[in-house]
TrEMBL record:
Organism expressing this protein natively: Paxillus rubicundulus Ve08.2h10
Function as written in the Swiss-Prot or TrEMBL entry: Thiol-specific peroxidase that catalyzes the reduction of hydrogen peroxide and organic hydroperoxides to water and alcohols, respectively.
Protein name: Thioredoxin domain-containing protein
Pfam families: 1-cysPrx_C, AhpC-TSA
UniProt KW keywords: Antioxidant, Oxidoreductase, Peroxidase, Redox-active center
Family: Belongs to the peroxiredoxin family. Prx6 subfamily.
Alphabetized GO MF terms: peroxiredoxin activity
One example of a Gene Ontology biological process annotation: cell redox homeostasis
Annotated ranges, domain Thioredoxin: 4-171
Amino acid sequence: MPSLRLGSIAPDFPAETTAGSINFHEWIGDSWAILFSHPGDFTPVCTTELGEVARRADDFAKRNVKVIGISANGLDDHKAWVQDINEYGAKYGPTKVEFPIIADADRRISTLYDMLDEQDATNRDDKGLPFTIRTVFVIDPKKVIRLTISYPASTGRNFDEVLRVIDSLQLGDKHRVTTPVNWKKGDDVIVHPAVKNDEAKQLFPQVTFHKQPYLRTTPLTE
């Protein structure tokens, strides 16, 4: 199986989820999508993560992003786990998990997307199946993989960072710009290297030409 890289088409697949049966590409439709994996249900780090994603539903929606989780358990466990997540999440405000969670007890989809820990004779669960890790895929409406981040099972994700990258990607798709280190929405951006200086002046009237000829920055309001 070829490796999935940035720019690869995200593999399509059918799946059973807490929201019913889906075909992944059809489910994405004309939206952006986040597919994020979990090592297992009823685990502490995963519980905090799904609660956070549920509370940030409006942040994803206003960016036209659909969110779907995947965990190496069956639907019955997923549905029971959602109750725990909602109960725990209430500590931080109203929490209601409404996004789907894919059932992947046989690791079929986790294997398809290589969301697995390093394989060796000991790195298996009590059923002999490989352990999964925390991976995030950001996929655009053309079904192209635009971001991957893999975390160890012990470390919870930073969804502020995931949203920051989506803001950057969407801005770059709309305008001929890239974003600098530690950029956040509203900060100055970098004019894309493919834009010539004369064109840059027309496209970005407030452009700043730095000493380095390849570095040109500009404010950009949406």
